[in-house]
Design brief:
The protein has about 250 residues and is of the alpha/beta class. The protein has two domains: about 5-130, Response regulator (Rossmann fold, 3-Layer(aba) Sandwich); about 145-250, OB fold (Dihydrolipoamide Acetyltransferase, E2P) (Beta Barrel). It has helices spanning about 15-25, 40-50, 65-75, 90-95, 110-130, 190-195, 240-250, and strands at about 5-10, 30-35, 55, 80-85, 100-105, 145, 150-155, 160-165, 170-175, 180-185, 200-205, 205-210, 215-220, 220-225, 235. The strands form four sheets. It has a five-stranded parallel sheet with strand order 2-1-3-4-5, sandwiched between helices. It has a five-stranded antiparallel sheet with strand order 10-9-8-12-11.
């Protein structure tokens, strides 16, 4: 049975609501449950309807969308992801700082819209798996700052699958939920990665996994949850195996 996700839009521009509603209507697992033109109206609908996904315009009358998001965080008690959208790119970093799930810049094209939605679907799919195996769901407000070859990328912890080390290039690469691979700056060491989160675990000299994706350990091999279940073998060193088992004996 296909999961239907409930979506709500808060935007003070009717045309913006109409365009976004049309884009959402192309997805058969989305139900648009409501729209609002102000933060006050939006808050009432959000608390009443408890949507899975909120599209929130940053330029709202009376209160900035980022300020509104900050207020929502202390009131929302269910799993609701927030996608901020705006025609001004300077709000992107501030949106992530306020723990937005993603940002959609206007005017957007269908490809950009679908990329954002695919990330949302992948996140909720993996969140569902974690709940099924009776482990804590991902903490959606944790962000990891990754230093890449060209700058800094702020990425939710729940979207980082694992890290690979290229011995020849002496460089680590991070593999994300959407299978995108991002090379880290050459000076990055395993210790730097491990210091970012207790969820990162070094299983051997060349692989560091996000243990939130770990699903099975067989002898000295481990398997990760989808979409990383068909990746190359993850071999656990003898010294790492005992430490890894001790971690999970405490969960």
């Amino acid at each position: 049975m296909k999961t239907i996700y409930r979506v709500l839009i808060v935007d003070d521009v009717e045309f913006g609501i109409a365009i976004l509603s049309q884009s959402l209507s192309s997805l058969d697992n989305i139900e648009l449950v409501g729209t609002a033109s102000s933060a006050e109206e939006g808050e009432e609908l959000i608390m009443d309807l408890e949507p899975d996904l909120l599209f929130l315009d940053i330029e709202l009358p009376g209160i900035n969308g980022l300020e509104f998001l900050r207020l929502l965080r202390i009131k929302v008690t269910w799993s609701m992801q927030v996608i901020m959208y705006s025609s001004h790119s300077q709000f992107v970093l501030d949106s992530f700082r306020e723990y937005a799930f993603d940002v959609l810049l206007k005017p957007y094209d269908q490809k950009g819209f679908l990329t954002v939605m695919e990330r949302f679907f992948a996140f909720r799919f993996n969140q569902g798996i974690m709940q099924q195996i009776k482990r804590k769901p991902y903490i959606t407000d944790i962000k990891i700052m990754i230093t890449t070859l060209t700058g800094v990328k702020i990425t939710p912890l729940c979207e980082i699958g694992y890290f690979l080390y290229n011995k020849d290039k002496r460089q680590w690469t991070v593999v994300l939920l959407n299978k995108k691979r991002i090379r880290l700056k050459p000076q990055t060491k395993a210790e730097n990665i491990l210091a970012d989160s207790t969820s990162f675990f070094k299983i051997n000299h060349f692989q560091i996994i996000n243990i939130n994706f770990l699903s099975e350990i067989l002898e000295y091999k481990c398997t990760l949850l989808p979409p990383f279940d068909n990746e190359p073998e993850f071999i656990i060193s003898r010294t790492a195996l005992k430490s890894l088992q001790n971690i999970f004996s405490q969960i």
